[in-house]
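Re: that backbone. Tokens:
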């Protein structure tokens, strides 16, 4: 099992007091498996991604990634975990403006000591960014930046990829193509993929799907 959440509870402190967001969420994700996480706006999807990515801690419950309980890690341990065990594709692409596309794509792979030029070549070609390698992020369209962000995450071949509407900036046809490429590449690399989407059409292409309703997984 690559990812396992057991009875995760999370609330946020707000001006109105403590607001419960997740009320006991449990699910597992196997190596090479893809899981769609759907649910209405505000149901807690991004919160699940942040917790699984070690960006925040739950109030209670256990999150195992690759056998390691990430809720027990200190700051150094979490930084190390984020560098090597998980890749995130969020809606802000967070490309590095001073680096060209090629250097952006290699960046995390080099940091994680998993740089592999052959795999990177396969990725940039599959994602259709091979003609853009010498451009800088500001010279790319939103959809092109999104594909570079996907390439950068997959290049590091982390065991787990967390993606929040990773094709949200693309037209329907390109979104389908890019998702198919992501699914093919994650499968072939044995990467477990947890993908948040509002689109039933995209969710249906993944291996499994769970829906959050008011902070719980709907039966
Ligand atoms: N840092 C925070 N402080 C306080 N409340 C928060 C914080 N982050 C999220 N929330 C609240 O938690 C709830 C769940 O938010 P979350 O972003 O996880 O939902 P979501 O399902 O991803 O929504 P969307 O589809 O709109 O992105 C919302 O009610 C939101 O207002």
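Recovered sequence:
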């Amino acid at each position: 099992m690559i990812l396992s959440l057991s009875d995760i509870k999370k609330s946020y402190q707000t001006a109105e007091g403590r607001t419960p967001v997740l009320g006991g969420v449990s699910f597992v994700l196997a190596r090479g498996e893809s899981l769609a996480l759907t649910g209405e706006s505000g149901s807690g999807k991004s919160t699940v991604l942040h917790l699984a990515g070690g960006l925040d801690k739950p109030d209670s419950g256990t999150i195992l990634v690759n056998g390691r309980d990430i809720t027990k890690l200190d700051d150094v341990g979490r930084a190390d975990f984020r560098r090597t065990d998980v890749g995130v594709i969020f809606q802000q692409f967070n490309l590095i403006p001073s680096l060209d596309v090629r250097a952006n794509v290699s960046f995390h792979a080099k940091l994680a000591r998993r740089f592999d030029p052959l795999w990177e070549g396969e990725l940039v070609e599959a994602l259709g960014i091979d003609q853009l390698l010498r451009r800088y992020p500001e010279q790319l369209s939103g959809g092109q930046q999104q594909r570079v962000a996907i390439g950068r995450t997959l290049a590091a071949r982390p065991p787990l990829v967390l993606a929040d509407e990773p094709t949200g900036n693309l037209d329907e046809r390109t979104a389908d193509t890019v998702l198919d490429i992501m699914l093919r590449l994650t499968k072939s690399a044995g990467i477990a993929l947890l993908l948040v989407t509002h689109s039933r059409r995209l969710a249906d292409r993944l291996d499994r799907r769970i829906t959050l309703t008011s902070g719980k997984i709907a039966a």
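The mean pLDDT is 95. DSSP finds seven helices and ten strands in the chain.
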